[in-house]
């Protein structure tokens, strides 16, 4: 009986940790992110900049095979949804790798870098457990998708189409 309870408790924790959230934590909004021009910004600043627009955030890294494999799908999403703004937050370990990845993959959008990587403060604050990770925010600033991964493009397409209606 104790083993069954333990299994159920652990399953509940896993389900809860992967749940969709409707707002960002205070920590995630305030953690500094590097910009391409050697400044810093925060997720709060990014959200303010894109206020009133549908926003797709991709958390990625140039070394991530799944991220690279998903790039054609992301570009198709961008082509189908030019009304949305796109933000890329890199988990690269070095600035030169981050910048080279942007150029190599011709990523169109705003670019930021979490300098302490996936397990750093920003990654922890957004419950980052996998990349690429996609977050969709509607025109009102509400999170409509908190956790999508590279296999969720059909669902993201459906969500973006619903937001256009």
From TrEMBL:
Compartments it resides in: Cell envelope
Domain Thioredoxin: 25-165
Example GO biological process: cytochrome complex assembly
InterPro entries: Redoxin, Thioredoxin-like_sf, Thioredoxin_domain, Thioredoxin_ResA/DsbE_sf
Name assigned to this protein: TlpA family protein disulfide reductase
Coiled coil regions in record: none
Organism: Flavobacterium agri
Protein keywords: Cytochrome c-type biogenesis, Disulfide bond, Redox-active center, Signal
GO-annotated cellular components: cell envelope
């Amino acid at each position: 009986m104790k083993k069954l309870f333990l299994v159920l408790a652990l399953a509940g924790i896993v389900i809860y940790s992967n749940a969709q959230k409707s707002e960002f934590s205070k920590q995630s909004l305030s953690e500094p992110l590097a910009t391409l021009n050697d400044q810093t910004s925060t997720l709060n600043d990014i959200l303010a900049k894109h206020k009133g627009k549908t926003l797709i955030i991709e958390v990625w890294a140039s070394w991530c095979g799944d991220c690279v494999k998903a790039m054609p799908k992301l570009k198709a999403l961008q082509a189908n949804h030019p009304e949305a703004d796109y933000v890329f937050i890199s988990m690269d370990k070095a600035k030169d790798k981050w910048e080279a990845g942007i150029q190599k993959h011709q990523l169109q959008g705003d670019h930021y870098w979490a300098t302490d990587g996936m397990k750093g403060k920003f990654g922890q604050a957004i419950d980052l457990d996998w990349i690429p990770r996609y977050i969709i925010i509607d025109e009102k600033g509400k999170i409509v998708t908190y956790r999508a991964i590279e296999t969720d493009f059909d669902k993201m397409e459906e969500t973006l189409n619903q937001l256009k209606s």
